[in-house]
Amino acid sequence: MESDPIKLSPTQPGDGPSDAERFARVRQANQSELAEDYVEMIAELIELHGEARATDLADRFGVSPGTVARTIQRLARDGLVESQPYRSIFLTSKGRELAAAARERHLLVRDFLLAIGVGAHAAEMDAEGLEHHVGEETLAAFRRFLDRGTA
């Protein structure tokens, strides 16, 4: 039994966010995605091994040490990490806050996907991308949905 295809009608002014607003949000999410992924991984490495090293980050992300070095310089400039050559990388308080928020968002999206029947591997993979693009209203709806299931 085939269902009718979904027909999208063009939005009218006042129907919702403008194209410019939607694309600006995506651009902002893309810009913060790298920083969030790095601070989240640094926090995880520190928790697991007591330190985060550039070589560990390169291995985990599958990128070159040079890419990690450039990213760490950018994160240091943004006040998220502290690092010296040939030393471990540490999160600043601002970096720890961002890492905790990113981790919480990731787990919430993953748990929501699991709750609606997505397999564990797919939920983990998809949460990695979705977590950066989901707004607060949607996250709140995910929380309400999950809270109903545990009540």
Instruction: Identify the strand order in the major beta sheet.
Output: 1-2
CATH fold topology: Arc Repressor Mutant, subunit A
Give the CATH class: Mainly Alpha
Q: How much is the radius of gyration in Å?
A: 19 Å
Overall pLDDT score:
86
Low-confidence stretches: none
How does this model look, in words?
- The protein is mainly α and 151 residues long.
- The chain has a single domain, classed as Arc Repressor Mutant, subunit A (Orthogonal Bundle).
- Helices cover 67% and strands 4% of the residues.
- It has 6 helices and 2 strands; from the N terminus they run αααββααα.
- The protein has a two-stranded antiparallel ribbon with strand order 1-2.
- The chain is globular and about 50 Å long.
- The two termini are 36 Å apart.
Sum this structure up briefly.
With 151 residues, this protein is mainly alpha-helical.
Give the tags:
mainly alpha, globular, 67% helix, 151 residues, two-stranded antiparallel ribbon, Arc Repressor Mutant, subunit A
Describe the protein's topology.
Elements: H1 19-49, H2 54-61, H3 65-77, E1 81-83, E2 89-91, H4 93-115, H5 120-130, H6 136-150
Antiparallel strand pairs: 1-2
Helix pairs in contact: 1-4, 2-3, 4-5, 4-6
